[in-house]
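note to self: dont lose this again. the chain is below, predicted strucutre after it. 183 aa total, dont forget to put it in the shared folder this time
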Amino acid sequence: MDRGELLAVVECLVFAADKPMKAAQIAEIVEVERPLIHQVLEDLRKKYDNAGGGIELAEVAEGFQFRTRREFSFWIRRSHKRKTFRLSRAALEILAIVAYRQPITRGEMERVRGVDCDGALRTLLEKGLLRICGKKEAPGRPLLYGTSAYFLEVFGLRNLEELPDLQQIKQLFPEDPGLPFNE
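---
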């Protein structure tokens, strides 16, 4: 398969996927080495960037996915006329605590927040932003929670290393010394 055909095949695979495709998955399907797939994905990214259209190839959740450029998201929401979900402050606090301290138990979350987390935690699990990732080796074997791949997709992150560090967050919110993960 020549380079042009490989580019087209990779483009089709990423386009048809219902979730971000990892380079390793693509390499396995087309039976070529992973470094070549990374080069082709970079060529595809440049192709869409140079076209200046409404679509981009984004690296999210440790994979690749075609997405609408942020500056055009208003039009997509308008065309779908569907409600986007909003998260309460409590849910956002829990999400931040889990993102930075995972894996973490519900009891540990409640100690950080100082209040019950049950309702907001249930909501985050239902929306698929959090997942149960095991049980802690402690009395009662409490469940451990972590963020999901969907969390990475929603927030447009490749991986958890792209989360801002706590110093960056403190600079963004200097008026809020009581951030839930400042402990």
